[in-house]
Specification:
By secondary structure, the protein is mainly β. The chain has one domain: Immunoglobulin-like (Sandwich). It is elongated, with a radius of gyration of 13 Å.
Amino acid sequence: SVPLNAQQQRVVIKIFDLTGRLVRVLFDREVAPGRYEVIWDGRDAHNNELVSGTYVYRLETGNNVITKKMLLIH
């Protein structure tokens, strides 16, 4: 969950595997200020279930970019 305190802005969340391959664009739209929650179902862009392991998400909002690791466990 990420609070957005600025004006309406584009928010993009991308999921990558540890080799840097983009596996899914999870969220890409203009949103109004507020608090949002996005839940990833562990699937790639083709709706294939990914294997358990470490993945990286990249959150882009305006001029800010946050990149963090996360663990997918089935």
